[in-house]
UniProtKB/TrEMBL annotation:
It holds the Pfam family YqeH-like_C. Residues 58-222 form the CP-type G domain. Coiled coil: none annotated. This is CP-type G domain-containing protein. CDD domains: YqeH. One of its GO terms (molecular function) is GTP binding. NCBIfam families: GTPase_YqeH.
Amino acid sequence: MTERLCDGCGAVLQSDDKSKAGYVPESALNNEHIICRRCFRLKHYNEVQDVNYSDDDFLEMIHQISNTKSLVVNIVDIFDFNGSFISGIKRLTGNNPVLLVANKVDLLPKSTNRNRLVHWMKKMAAEQGVKVVDVFLISAAKGIGFDEVEEAMEKYRQGKDIYVVGCTNVGKSTFINQLIQRTSGTNDAITTSYFPGTTLGFIEIPLDDRTSLFDTPGIVNRHQLVHYVSEKDLKLITPKKELKPKVFQLNDQQTLFFGGFCRFDFQKGMKQSIICYFSNQLMIHRTKLEKADDFFQEHVGELLQPPNRETLEKLPELITHTFKIPHEKTDIVIPGLGWFTIAEGGISIAVHAPKGIQISLRPALI
């Protein structure tokens, strides 16, 4: 019998085991268009069913691209560039040309210099050993920037297949749904959600009689906060509207709490402007460094929220990272949550974040 794939997530359809990916009732296998029970419940009830795939299984699937001659479109989340950029993409995709597409540009403040941002992205990719053929800024949800991206995809694919890759939760499926909607008028052809790991296999969308565009499983980056939070908290920390930066004037020996997820201690240095780029729904609190430990223990999950109690049960303990910030405008990035900018530098700081979350510094994005 010919193997059939779920139209929503790409999993191989089967009717033998309800606990495994691709399950549908046997009576549904004769339908022309089929989505598995997992996609049906995700689409209609926002309910996620665990599947028996490991992170390595997804990487192995992506690695198949290295054996093809194709164009790779790498989607990143511009709000979480460090957390969503695939550092090993060249190893996974071989010598195929890479088009870097930054999604969710509509969330950045309107004052953002887009030309500078594109140059910055090329530089960051080059530092990871990846030479991209071009860079584009888009909003998959709003259709911003798609005329330019479609033109570039046609130019660089040179009559070959296209593989769309990216980490979980960057908007790959939304990107492809937008492409399909623009060409065929079909809405929500591929399953999308807030949750990481929605796509479970390659989903093939024909481009012409000989070539196709493939949606691929999201690569899991365990250094991102999104893998440790509840459904409710994930919606709160995922930006939906243009970011409104919050500015704090801090002296040394002061602390900022970003909800109850992360803490920034200004240990030593001259007075600084701290510019915070997080979801507008994340509460930020300032207190004295000497009171910070007691304040956290007393208020986490209540005044310091999110996280809620469900997230706190699985959130790793906070680990301290210390840095000396150079005399230049610097971002401190918390993957999956956002970043804050130290305007002048020349100070000593500490950042307390859940164990396993990879805190990084970079030249200021904005």
